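Please produce the structure of this protein holding iron/sulfur cluster.
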Amino acid sequence: MAQIASEPHREGLYLHFPYCVVKCRYCDFNSHVEARPDTTRYLDAMLREAEMRGVRSPRTVFFGGGTPSLVPAGELRRFLRELDARTGYRASAEEFTVEANPESLTGEFLEVALEGGVSRVSLGVQALDEPTLRFFGRAHDSGRALEAIGTARRAGVPALNIDLIQGAPVQTRAAWEAGLERILQERPEHLSAYDLLYEPGTALGTLHEKGKLEATDDRDRAASFLWNQRRLRAEGYRPYEVSAFAQPGFECRHNLIYWRNEPYVGLGAGAASYRQGFRSINAKEPRRYVAEVEATGRATTSSERLRPLRRAAETLMMALRLPEPVELAWLADRAGVGLEGELAQAWERLVVQRLAMPPTAGKIALTRRGRRFLDLVVSRLLEASEARSG
Ligand code: SF4
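Below is the modeled complex.
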């Protein structure tokens, strides 16, 4: 936890590009399918918002979505130039990630991105077997995914992340393992292996809710989780967050800002910000976002100052994603309160359930079982923080 405790903070900058070519069946991100989105107008709105909200010298930049690789190369060049003029990110950012999807990633896009200071590309591969890709409703097949990895390598992307999702009921263990082995041959600097979640309102979530889709057995998921850990460690990757694996020095600095509950500003439709103890969220629908920014320079729909206990619960829920134990002094310093009141009681209950360990030498940590059921742990902590604030 020592490295978590120290740094004073310049904020991270998140930019959201909300358009995609299809809506994947598991997706609950703020993504929209439009035949001809007005990309120029949307990017201009983000530039205006950057100016109005006083974004200067960000520590990291993350251009996510949606599918930022849909932005035409010429538009991207102009956008990055203008963004730098407003924020000075070229001189300040330690890392600049752009998200891409295989069906739209081109060498030209990457050339412009790298010229503009992008240092990391995160590619949504998700799987390398056709039944799983079809089940997810992805717009690419495995051949296109491998081609996109080749395109990124040829362009000289310094750090490549591959996103994968496991737990599809149509995917056999053998198919998952073969897919991961094939990815390992490409030696990406970073890998993210997420669990498939059936989020309410998504196509798969609705089927699941109606009982038309059985989730993968928990024991199978746990076995895959352990297999991934073993296999990736053997290849020199360090699991530095529940779903993230990096070769040494290639941890995602922007995501570490979230996991350490440090400040960040989000620009674009539905983007969230966390600045000076306030959490704020932008209008979700892209047209509304653009219209509001054009009219007033901002599109914030809600802003709340987090109460100390809530801040402590949120800080904890993010920090517990990392492998290091959480220092209670750091928690108190960051949130204004430590492990107290309802939060301390919730922690004791987690200890009884063998999900967490009792505080030792001023530090707390989850058990291996707690890390496996992190979502459950997080919801217990958040419930506890609501109990007092409600
Ligand atoms: S490409 Fe990503 S953001 Fe777009 S719909 Fe699919 S999962 Fe959602």
